[in-house]
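Session log. Operator J.P. requested a structure for one protein chain; no other inputs attached. Running the standard single-chain path with token output.
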Amino acid sequence: FNKGVLMNVGTIIADDKTTHYCFHDVDLLPASNECNYSYVNGVTKLATKVSQFGFQHRPLPPLELGGVVLIDKESFIKINGWCNEYRGWGIEDDDFGERCLAKKINIEQRNGTYISLPHETRGDTLGGTTPYSKINNQKYLDNAKKTNSLFDSGLNNVKYEISSKEQKENYLLIKVKT
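Structure written below.
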């Protein structure tokens, strides 16, 4: 899968009146009323206490913007969205942080407690071996930073095709081919 492409496509498909986006890992559920999804200026990480990490408060690492992230549309466009080059698991959120840092987008966090749905752990999440996809993704990010090509891939050149749309009771299910 390519999470960056899917998130870019979601923003393209969103209503033109949309002013903010929330990128939310599907396996994280809000565990309290303290999870504040209100509008932001810049980017804000919400998932700071997560069950798979024992609900220990995890202060924001400088560039790790995974889990649950809010961003205003103007900032999202300024950083060219998410990179389209990462396959599999890992590093896309670090790339997102690098983009925000490079464009001087304000990065904040709000306290948020989340329950992790049961899922297969992926390598170094819990101290295992790092998946091959994450190693390759890290090489891509390192090279993009070294060659000043961090913004070459993203919202402005995402390639996709909508394969189906199905209106459900509370949402629209859109399937895409990348």
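Operator note: DSSP finds four helices and nine strands in the chain.
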